[in-house]
Amino acid sequence: MSTPDTVTPAPAPAIADPGPLGLAAFAATTFVLSSFNADLIDASLEAVVLPLALFYGGFLQLLAGMWEFRKGNTFGATAFGSYGAFWLSYAAYAKFVAPGLPAGTAHQATGLYLLIWAVFTVYMTVAALRTSGALLAVFVTLSATFIVLTVAEFAQSTGTTKAGGWIGLVTAVAAWYASFAGVTNSTWKRAVVPVFAAGDRVAIGRRGGPVEEAHS
What we know:
It is a single chain. The chain has helices at residues 19-37, 49-70, 74-97, 106-128, 133-155, 158-188. The chain is an all-alpha fold. α4 runs antiparallel to α5 (133-155) and α5 runs antiparallel to α6. The longest helix has 31 residues, at 158-188. It is globular and about 65 Å long. The N and C termini lie far apart (58 Å).
């Protein structure tokens, strides 16, 4: 008795690494907002952050998170998906919600908003211990940024806000470096820019999901 031939399913098509794209979007938006928090730019121009938060830091980073889901990378999907939503919600909060809050207590709402992101970033930092040194630096400095800005809002301290802005600028530079390393190493097909990853650490956005990263 004959049996039908077994059909082997076609392998899923590979997709490009979304990590450098998501990191670049995060870095750029963080840099611009942090420039205002650090009081380097006239505060009356702060509306420039909103379109950047909507389209680059928000929408594009959210897409990067969904592509990380496609690659099976839980860490990358959670990080990019969440911070993409952060920037989208920040744009909505700054444009539509904050102006209507009572002037005397609005800082409490902003402080609470920042606090939940500080909590999220701190536990993502624990997970980032299994990625690379370059990516870990992003999460360590971002945790510090959110914590300092949270304290600044609850305490209504402009000096603390400036400190948070400066830490945010460091965070942006760290994210740009991680993005630069990712796109350069992918393009050159070898480790040109070091990411300081131990052999047993999981790399963000690598083909096929979490894999062993042997380069340093």
